[in-house]
Backbone:
């Protein structure tokens, strides 16, 4: 059931109660968790936070931490699972789900007792109607229910046209239901950022701050830079956040004299759509940014040549492009955006390949932080493969990156990421798998969701689909040919 008023239907309900918070392993979920943690601390609400990597982790975390718990909040996990069936909770346990994963399981949508959805109504417009999925079958089959009937009357009912019509109608209804369910679940996608949802709750309760706003910005940015949301949806969310940025960061001269110099200041501007270019070299950033890599086809000699031509036509010496961005000549560094926009058309680039509306933040006189860079850095920590570190260690490390004093931690993680070498084990991580798109000519991501599950079942392929993102599966390499053949046939 969808909660229409988050304040009354959720927040005021859980006050004076201990809440179990299960958080999915992504930056958006982490930001939403930090916002909620601030609200809980303001109102002295007891809570337990447990990060969960996948479905098995979710089940284990619930079993180990649910004793004495009445309210469970699931952030970026659980929406696309039948949580009551999966977790088998006591009847008094109520789940609140704030999750951007789509599609939402139909049992979660229509469970009015134990499942409450903290989501925007417009994100659920594609949910099938209740009557097309559920029906009362008690009176559908009159034959065979009367154990005291004589053998002669049973034979008469067998040929009863009305009973036959009902069976036929039920069979047709079930076939139609299966088609509707497959159409609804075959593709996976993402809805509104969980961090943005939690920030709007804080705003409606007049408890929003500039720091919470920055977390919401990082959550929305994480969805965009990891191709979870289309550009149009991202722009819509960014424009909504811009009004809050203006409200929190409009300062007069008197304000500047009163406010501490170490306070956070957020600025809206067009950001170059280049990964970590401030912490890398311009040349390497161009080669490793998905949009640019795909446009120039940098994995080919011809593509490499075109990239060199593009830089030369902009008047950017290769020696400058290959050194650290911070060491570049200041006259070149300050005009990169303008020069790229002036020469992009000749090389098949459009404005959205080069720039994107975004935000940067600054604490006092420290270096500015781009929301894009923070999102990349936090993901690098979350999906770290450093030996001896558990998933909980990675979760806490990512929290440090998001802290106002996490600049050093962030810088070290970016350095490790940008100076690393290609390794197949990096691509086993859900977010890092996006980097594999640089080998493709198109950047459109087709998220097949439940179609994977059906193709595997039809071919007895061995897959592991433990992620909350149903478009991510692990498969035995020897099964891939028959799996893809079944998948293509299924979607034709």
Residues:
């Amino acid at each position: 059931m969808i909660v229409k008023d988050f304040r009354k239907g959720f927040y005021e309900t859980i006050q004076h109660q201990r809440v179990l918070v299960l958080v999915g392993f992504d930056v958006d979920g982490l930001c939403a968790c930090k916002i909620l943690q601030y609200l809980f601390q303001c109102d002295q609400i007891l809570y337990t936070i447990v990060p969960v990597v996948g479905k098995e982790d979710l089940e284990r975390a619930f079993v180990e931490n649910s004793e004495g718990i009445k309210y469970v909040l699931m952030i970026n996990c659980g929406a696309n699972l039948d949580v009551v069936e999966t977790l088998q909770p006591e009847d008094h346990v109520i789940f609140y789900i704030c999750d951007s994963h789509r599609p939402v399981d139909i049992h979660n949508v229509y469970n009015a007792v134990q499942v409450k959805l903290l989501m925007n109504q417009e994100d659920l417009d594609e949910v099938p109607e209740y009557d097309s999925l559920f029906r009362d079958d008690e009176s559908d089959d009159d034959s065979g229910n009367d154990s005291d009937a004589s053998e002669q009357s049973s034979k008469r009912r067998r040929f009863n046209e009305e009973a036959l019509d009902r069976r036929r109608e039920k069979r047709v209804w079930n076939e139609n239901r299966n088609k509707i369910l497959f159409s609804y679940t075959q593709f996976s996608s993402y809805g509104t950022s969980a961090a943005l949802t939690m920030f709007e709750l804080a705003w409606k309760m007049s408890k929003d701050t500039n720091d919470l706003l920055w977390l919401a910005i990082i959550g929305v940015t994480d969805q965009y830079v990891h191709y979870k949301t289309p550009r149009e949806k991202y722009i819509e969310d960014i424009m909504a956040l811009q009004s809050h940025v203006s409200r929190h960061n409009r300062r007069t001269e008197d304000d500047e004299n009163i406010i501490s110099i170490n306070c956070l200041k957020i600025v809206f501007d067009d950001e170059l759509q280049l990964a970590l270019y401030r912490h890398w070299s311009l040349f390497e950033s161009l080669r490793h940014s998905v949009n640019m890599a795909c446009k120039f086809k940098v994995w080919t000699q011809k593509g490499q040549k075109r990239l060199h031509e593009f830089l030369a036509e902009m008047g950017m010496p290769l020696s400058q492009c290959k050194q650290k961005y911070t060491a570049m000549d200041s006259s070149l560094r300050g005009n990169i955006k303008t020069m790229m926009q002036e020469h992009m058309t000749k090389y098949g680039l459009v404005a959205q390949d080069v720039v994107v509306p975004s935000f940067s933040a600054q604490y006092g006189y420290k270096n500015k932080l781009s929301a894009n860079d923070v999102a990349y850095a936090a993901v690098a920590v979350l999906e770290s493969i450093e030996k001896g570190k558990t998933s909980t260690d990675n979760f806490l490390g990512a929290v440090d990156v998001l802290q106002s004093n996490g600049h050093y931690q962030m810088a070290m993680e970016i350095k490790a990421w940008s100076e690393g070498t290609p390794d197949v084990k990096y691509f086993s991580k859900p977010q890092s798998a996006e980097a594999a798109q640089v080998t493709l000519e198109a950047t459109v991501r087709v998220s097949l969701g439940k179609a994977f599950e059906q193709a595997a079942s039809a071919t007895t392929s061995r897959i592991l689909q433990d992620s909350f993102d149903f478009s991510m599966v692990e498969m035995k390499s020897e099964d891939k040919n028959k799996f893809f053949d079944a998948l293509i046939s299924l979607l034709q």
